[in-house]
Design a protein that fits this description.
mainly alpha
Length: 387
């Protein structure tokens, strides 16, 4: 027993992890020392803290492609994060990586996202010009380091270094790693689990955006037939299930695509780990190469699919219309709060002296759900709306 009457526990590491997997017992630790009531490994504890935090719950009403009020079928940041976790864990299990770290990273990677998707991020970055800018990976780190208020002794969630590093170095076609923070050794690759999340993220959004795009009618089966990867898998599924309805064929094709991506990613990553003689996290840092990826052939087909979605879904005129509306909402909210900061809840006003007015306003808006932002806009600008 020691202070506070709590027992010290030794965490139990899984015995089946590969040598190159990140291990809780070898973690670089947390910012603040803590005493625990149980023996969960560090990354499992991180995963649990993320699930219970307020920012994670808000993801339920944050845009992926379709804004919340457009329908309850479409993916949100929350369902997207769950799908990323499912895909990431499937690959991690095959490669004997740390599944708890993989899951923690998947569930936390979008915590810093704004309402209205990437439009919200772009607008806030522009509005924060001269005040430090805005980038959602940095904001995810800010959420888990500073903005969550759950513990008596510190701000944030006090997550392990490896989770925090994975958040700041997250990379995708829409995310440039924000690793220019000395604590996280800029220019040094993160652990394999963090690299894996970059691809699990891409697999998830490519495939669920096909589903949502078809459901909405913004893209059609005829258009998709022009994409080699979709055409090949869809025809194979059709041959195997000749009596299936189009909707069932769609779901079966997307399932087959996800399985194909998982298998390819597993085989190619295993090859690259072996080729670079990575037997430990230390080896990975020393070699300093990304070792997670698709085979060249699947990568080529995937690029064609992504270009199709960019041209036909993300730039669909109805999505663009919502983007314009979202920009107006965020610009008006930001400017109004800047001119009249006492419109914010009092706890945010108190933070302004320490953090600066613009940064606090940015934090407040970034934390909004789509629904809250729309309601707040009505409260501030529609004369007959109750305040």
């Amino acid at each position: 027993m020691h202070k506070g009457g709590m027992m010290r526990f030794e965490s139990v590491e899984r015995p089946d992890l590969a040598g190159y997997a990140a291990k809780s017992s070898e973690s670089s630790g947390r910012r603040y020392k803590e005493d625990y009531r149980d023996n969960r490994p560090a990354f499992e504890r991180d995963r649990d803290r993320i699930i219970h935090c307020a920012a994670f719950r808000r993801l339920e009403y944050k845009t992926q492609v379709f804004v919340n009020h457009e329908g309850d079928y479409y993916r949100t940041r929350l369902t997207h994060s769950l799908e990323v976790a499912q895909i990431g864990k499937a690959v991690a299990r095959r490669l004997r990586l740390n599944e708890e770290l993989t899951e923690a990273l998947a569930l936390a990677h979008d915590l810093g996202h704004t309402p209205f998707g990437h439009t919200g991020e772009e607008v806030l970055n522009r509005l924060m010009d001269g005040h430090g800018g805005f980038e959602h990976n940095r904001q995810s780190l800010r959420v888990v380091d500073e903005l969550e208020e759950r513990y008596a002794d510190f701000n944030g969630l006090n997550l392990s270094f490896e989770v925090r590093e994975g958040l700041i170095k997250h990379s995708s076609p829409y995310d440039t790693p924000s690793g220019q923070i000395d604590e996280f050794s800029p220019g040094i690759v993160p652990v394999i689990e963090a690299q894996l999340i970059n691809y699990a993220d891409e697999i998830a959004y490519n495939n669920h955006d096909i589903d949502d795009g078809l459901k909405s009618g913004y893209i059609t089966f005829e258009q998709l037939s022009e994409v080699q990867l979709w055409r090949e898998v869809y025809m194979d599924v059709g041959d195997r299930f000749p009596n299936a309805t189009p909707d069932r064929l769609k779901h079966q094709t997307i399932s087959s695509l996800i399985g194909m991506f998982i298998d390819d990613l597993t085989v190619e990553t295993s090859r690259m780990i072996s080729e670079n003689m990575i037997n430990s996290v230390g080896d990975l840092r020393r070699v300093n190469r990304l070792v997670v990826g698709f085979s060249p052939e699947l990568a080529r087909k995937n690029r064609e699919l992504k270009q199709f979605l960019l041209n036909n879904l993300y730039h669909h005129y109805k999505v663009e219309r919502m983007r314009v509306k979202a920009e107006r909402y965020i610009c008006n909210l930001f400017q109004t709060y800047t001119n009249y900061p006492t419109l914010l809840p009092s706890k945010y006003v108190r933070k302004m002296e320490l953090m600066g007015r613009e940064r606090v306003i940015c934090d407040y808006i970034a934390g909004m759900t789509d629904r809250f932002a729309l309601d707040e806009f009505k409260r501030l600008f529609e004369p007959y709306e109750r305040v």
